[in-house]
Amino acid sequence: MKALIILLIIINLNFVSFGQSKITGTAFLDKNKNGVQDTGEKVFKNLYVSNGKDFVRTDKKGNYSIEKLDARFVFAIKPSGYQFGMDRDFQAKFYHTEGKTFNIPVYPSKNEDKYSMVLMGDPQVYMQDQINYLGEVATDELLDADYEFMVVLGDLVGNSLPLIPTVKTTLGLTKKPNYFVLGNHDRDRGEFADATKSDNDSFEKDLGPDYYSFNWGDAHFLVLNDVLTYPNRNVKGSDYVPGIHKSQIEFIINDLKTVPSDKLIVVCAHIPFFFGDKKDATTKQMLELLSGHEKVFMATGHAHNQIQLFFDEDDGWMNKQPVHQLVAGAICGNWWRGEYNMFGIPGSMMRDGTPRGYWFMHIDGNEYQLEYKASGMGKNKQMHIWVPQHFEMFDTLSNSAPHINDIWINVYAGNEFTDVKISIDGGVWKSVKQKEKFDPYILRLLNRQEMGIIPTDGSRELKEEPRASTHLWHGSIPDGLEKGAHMLEVTAKNKYGLDAKANRLFWVRD
User: Fold this and answer.
1) What radius of gyration do the chain's Cα atoms show?
2) Which pTM value belongs to this model?
3) Which of 108, 135, 165 is at the close of a domain?
4) Which of 89, 167, 413, 465 is close enough to 172 for a disulfide, judged by CB 3.0 to 4.6 Å?
């Protein structure tokens, strides 16, 4: 009997040692930037290290020890005012991949009190041509931009998993740190599915953990994986649902314990939390987890249109400042579809009529403002205006209704707190109403597509799935204007940083 007990103990110990192992290391200030702790280089204490569930801190000698959970990473949490080393594609070396030792060189970081960062949705490349488009519409522009780092909000690829490292390299040419979110199209599905591996194996191999966190100044960034694989969920064959698995919930709870309640929390995920119904189980759970923090901002992608949403007491959020969620659209726009421009890049207007682009988030302490940048357009291009154009060939919308007098204004960074006003020929400024409708420009493109006018040879059809814009305002051309040309002026302002102007000439025919 004793022999049997001893045998069972040995088997159990072997199982534990196989499933878990200790990772140890030292954090230090790497003064000469060689990645090795040399004589005289000071240790770095109180640095948080996580195994994807638990947290430990380095002691007064800079040392730590933590269990490595089955198939999980061990990673360091970037502290405010400091940075980790970068690989050649400017991704931080913050995670452990192999071996039992993970030493962590730390370097002082600048510009963390007041800074800008970039939020970019859905590159979603399927082929090398689209990598080239991404380089031109994103990397080339960002090389000249003033910001500290970027978070890419998932769907780096469109199931073309071998292109993940190529996307990383393309965006790394900005020479600014990049952080990546996992999207539903970044999973090992279809031809890449392997029952012996995680759904996220390709992403993790090239980019590291699928959830983690980091600090930058008075903001704490919580990067999450909210894509749960769920085979044959619905009639369309979708194999995922929005949600956060149990071990990640434990990570979030323990992570937020390390963050002061007045620090700005920036949640970065792929699938919007209001998906289906903004009070669904995942959203409720997230709001409960975040309730101990006063200022919360959420950045998501996935939708290929732009939405801003605010969770308040009606949604169970009882803190004074609502949770602000930005659904950031997609840098690929309409999946890299549409007519090619003169430089060979598809126009690819998003489904709500917004030009493809990315966002700047300007952070000052724990306050922030937002700024949209339409790719390929000037910084001041913050809206477009539709007015009747009866003289334009193939203007199917106007010619079908010759007496139409509508003015539609798509304010790219607009939300429910935005004040939009119009003036005609320098006259009185009047407020116009926000309406959730289809943008006339995307409807016109789809109408021309249906008529066979577009796409021309070599271009690809836009997806015929328009979405009503939540940032559209409606006004009318008043009766009694003289025949001839008139100038429409528009202003748009909100408390989140938008302060924009635009003009549009229009004609009165009769």
Assistant:
1) 26
2) 0.93
3) 108
4) 89
CA distance 355 to 342: 17
Classified as helix, coil or strand, 366 is: coil
Provide the token pair at 510: 């009769």
Same domain for 80 and 176, yes or no, is no
Q: Band the pLDDT of 13: cuts 50, 70, 90.
A: very low
Tens of pLDDT along 62-97?
A: 999 999 987 679 999 999 999 999 999 999 999 998
Is the Cβ–Cβ distance between 397 and 443 less than 8 Å?
yes
| Number of neighbouring beta carbons within 10 Å of residue 328 | 29
Q: What is the 3-state secondary structure (H, E, C) of 59-94?
A: CCCCEEEEEECCCCCEEECECCCEECCECCCCCECC
pLDDT, tens digit (0-9, with 9 covering 90-100), for 432-462? 999 999 999 999 999 889 989 899 998 999 9
Q: How many domains does the chain have?
A: 3
Q: Same domain, yes or no, for 236 and 279?
A: yes
Clarify whether residues 45 and 152 are in a common domain: no
> Which string of DSSP letters, residue by residue, matches 393-458?
TT-HHHHTSTT--EEEEEETT--TT-EEEEEETT---EE-EE--B--HHHHHHHHHHHTT--SPTT
Alpha-carbon span 468 to 221, nearest angstrom: 30
Catalogue the E-assigned strands of 182-245.
212-216, 219-223, 227-229, 240-242
Cα pseudo-dihedral 279, 280, 281, 282, rounded to 10: -90
Residue 488, CA distances (Å) to 387, 420, 436 in order: 9, 13, 22
CB 93 within 8 A of CB 86: yes
Residues with Cβ < 8 Å from 166, sequence gap 6 or more?
A: 125, 128, 131
Same domain, 71 and 206: no
Angstrom distance (rounded) from CA 169 to CA 157: 13
User: 473 and 388 share a domain?
Assistant: yes
Sort strands 240-242 and 306-311 into parallel, antiparallel or unpaired.
Answer: unpaired
Q: Are strands 74-76 and 219-223 parallel, antiparallel or unpaired?
A: unpaired
Distance from C-alpha of 151 to C-alpha of 268, rounded to nearest angstrom: 8
Examine the domain organization and report whether 367 and 424 are in the same domain: no
Residue 94 burial class via C-beta count within 10 angstroms: exposed 0-12, middle 13-18, buried 19 and up: buried
Quick one: which of 80, 143, 147, 171 has its CA closest to 362? 147
Q: Give the pair of three-digit tokens for residue 275.
A: 């998906």
Residues 368 and 222 placed together within one structural domain of the fold: yes
Q: Which domain holds residue 269?
A: 115-374
Asked if 131 contacts 98 with a C-beta cutoff of 8 angstroms, the reply is no
Kindly state whether residues 207 and 295 are assigned to the same domain.
yes
Whether the per-residue pLDDT at 474 is higher than 60: the answer is yes
| C-alpha dihedral, 280 to 283 to 287 to 289, nearest 10° | 110
Annotate 494-509 with b (16+ C-beta within 10 A) or e (fewer).
bebebebebebebeee
Q: Is 284 exposed, middle or buried (0-12, 13-18, 19+ CB in 10 A)?
A: middle
